[in-house]
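Session log. Operator J.P. requested a structure for one protein chain; no other inputs attached. Running the standard single-chain path with token output.
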Amino acid sequence: MKQELPSIPGPIGVFDSGYGGLTILSKIREALPEYDYMYLGDNARTPYGTRSFEIVYEFTLEAVTKLFEMGCHLVILACNTASAKALRSIQINDLPHLDPARRVLGVIRPTVESIDGITRSRHVGVLATAGTIKSESYPLEVHKLFPDIRVTGEACPLWVPLVENNEAQGDGTDYFIRKYIDELLAKDKEIDTVILGCTHYPLLLPKIKKYMPVHITTVTQGELVAESLKDYFHRHPEIDTQCTKGGTCIYYTTEAEEKFIESASTFLNEEVTVQRISLEA
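Structure written below.
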């Protein structure tokens, strides 16, 4: 039996498979501090990057539905894997019967829209999880908007575990940072812009910049998604009015609260309180 969704305005929902989406959330809150936010991390089932399209879609739909049930009218998938593997299906197949007035947005499109003004060589690289690279979401989205830009991807399967195990600044991390950057640039010597296509990767930025050639621009997503959301509200006042503005932020996790609090401080540099919830029916 279909559950009736709350009709009164509520917070902006921000979903990620783990902690990486906190880098997106923090930039959105900087740009739009007056709004209320509800962050949900599916930490118990992370990582999504190595999972199949079907499982990522299933897990993401469960999270979106939960956020809708908790009062959100707008949900941002602050996760490249979920954006790549689940966003379109949810928008086309699920929103019409869940609630056609609600919205789900991703992080790939806002990132892609900025590329035209950054690259001069028209050769762009993407460093991301295996799932995002395999989905080819970045080349597909780039070619829709800018058919002349060549996109080359490289999967970095060890970068997320390094961040989540608090090894982002560890000495052993350097080898894996340099390895994936070198492998990407070996595929196309003309790359002048590299997209960090995973929300965990900004925590590796000091080391990424250390090994990225100086002529290459490294693009992170937080500011781009925040600016895109600001523009979205200008263009869609009917959605804006459904988002409450009290300046609050509450956190939910599918893992143990203590674990979330400990790791979240790495991403946010602030103490948070969190409540554990279950997504599985």
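Operator note: Strands lie at 12-16, 37-41, 74-77, 103-105, 123-128, 150-155, 193-196, 217-219, 249-253, 274-276.
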